[in-house]
Structure formats: structure tokens, C-alpha cells
């Protein structure tokens, strides 16, 4: 019965799932829905479970590749789910969530489309290093370095303040940037032309932690206020409330100089 369920819908499911990444959620509100049927989450889950119960690679290949030479279950189609400004861009992911063949491997992959002035907002991947390659247009990549405030691995109460060093690079023509596991990074498109990238991850479940959204999700408000320096003139409960509803899930637009230069709508 499991096999029947898997067989009937699996190949169709992968294409749908490619567009159904969590990151695509916000983007889809700005564009017409893709011409796809209902998400096939149940079928994907059934296949994931079958693969997780398969102890060896030969067992997993017997599930995924039962009809040589047909390699369909080892292929994945990224959907170009480009969105319009002021949404800054979109990413399609291939991870264990939507490409079960990755179960038992240590890889995942992404394709991203970044609009003019688009910003892939500061984030980190808790379980994966990332190697991002720009394949179209131009992006600036930024990486905020790890800080070691105690000097010997200890948080010793010295409480240094001020910015942590950041490095950056302009990427085009297949130039790549390494974003190490767990380190905060971002990319933005400073030009008035679209850009796109591919990214490789060394974990089939890389994850994504949004810096601003995570920080402003802490409560009570006093925690955020104290962590941000404790100046109520700069940040109080009212401002926190206002900010919380505006922090984007993944992409934003550089609204000052860039959007004006390119004549883009700023969404507000
Ligand atoms: C893909 O995997 C499913 C689940 O095991 C299987 O039923 C189906 O035949 C496979 N598709 C191809 C083209 O081999
Ligand atoms: C992705 O789709 C958009 C909108 O249809 C199109 O303008 C763009 O050229 C496509 N990008 C690629 C790389 O195919
Ligand atoms: C890159 O960093 C330098 C400082 O190290 C800064 O002057 C420059 O503006 C940065 N470039 C971008 C595009 O952010």
C-alpha cells in the first residue's frame, strides 16, 4: 500500500514541493499562484519514512530506482518562482523536506533569484556550510565574523560593545562565496538588473535562522530592550511591537539609495 501511494504521486510531487519551500510563502502573495495541484506533503512523508527505515544505500536505491535506467527519482526541478519588487527575491530549496532522495546524503542545494535592490536578509544556517555561486547579474555578499568577546572562550563580563567586523565581496560571473556553518551572512543586489545564484550545503537539512526576526521574537519585551542596550529612548515596547510586524521572513528591498536609483516601488 505504501508502495502504491508512493508510485502514484511521487514524481509529480517533487516538482510541486520545489515551489513550496517555506521561503516561497511570502513571495507567493505578490504573484499569481503557480499552476500546480495540492501540495503532496503526505506522499513526501511516506517516502521519507520508507527511506529512513531502509538501512543501506542498496535498500534506498531499491525504493527510489526500481526501474533502471529511469533515474527520475534522483532528479529535481527547481521552479523559477521569481517575484516582483518590492519583494526582494525568492529561493527554491532542495532539501530532505522536498527531495527525499537526499536522505542518507550530506548535501542540499538552493537556487535564488534576487531582484534589483533585493536583499537576502541576514541569516545563518545552523547545520550547514554554504558555498554560494552567482550565475547571473551581480550580488554583494557580506559575512559578519565570529566574535570572541572573552579572548579565551569565556564571556568574562567585560561586555564589549560596538560592531563586529564584517567582510564583503562583489560576486558576478560564477564567483562564489563561502558562508561557514552558523555564521551570519547576507547578499544584496546593488544593481538595477536581476541576479540569480545557486548554493550548495553540506547537510541535507541545512536550516535557516533569521537574525532580526529571531531577535525580535524573544519575550518579554524587557529582554529585547536590555539585550539591545537598554535605552528606552531608542527602543521601547511600542517600537518593538511596530517592528515585529514588519520584519520580513527572508527578503527585503534596499529602499533608500538603490530603489530610488532604479525607480522601484518601495512598498510603503
Ligand atoms: C520513484 O519512487 C517511487 C517510490 O518508491 C516508486 O514507486 C516509483 O516507481 C519511482 N519512479 C521511477 C520512475 O522509478
Ligand atoms: C525566471 O522567470 C522570470 C519571470 O518569468 C524571467 O523573467 C526570468 O528570465 C527567469 N529566469 C531564468 C534564469 O530563467
Ligand atoms: C565592504 O566593506 C567596506 C569596509 O570594510 C565598506 O567600506 C564597503 O562599503 C563595503 N561594501 C559594501 C558593498 O557593503
TrEMBL record:
One of its GO terms (molecular function) is manganese ion binding. SMART domains: Cupin_1 (SM00835). It comes from the Eukaryota. Residues 1-20 form the signal peptide. PROSITE patterns: GERMIN (PS00725). Its main location: secreted. Keywords: Manganese, Metal-binding, Secreted, Signal. It is found in: Secreted. Residues 76-236 form the Cupin type-1 domain. One of its GO terms (cellular component) is extracellular region. PANTHER family: GERMIN-LIKE PROTEIN SUBFAMILY 3 MEMBER 3 (PTHR31238). Belongs to the germin family. This is Cupin type-1 domain-containing protein. It comes from Monosporascus ibericus. The lineage of its organism: Eukaryota, Fungi, Dikarya, Ascomycota, Pezizomycotina.
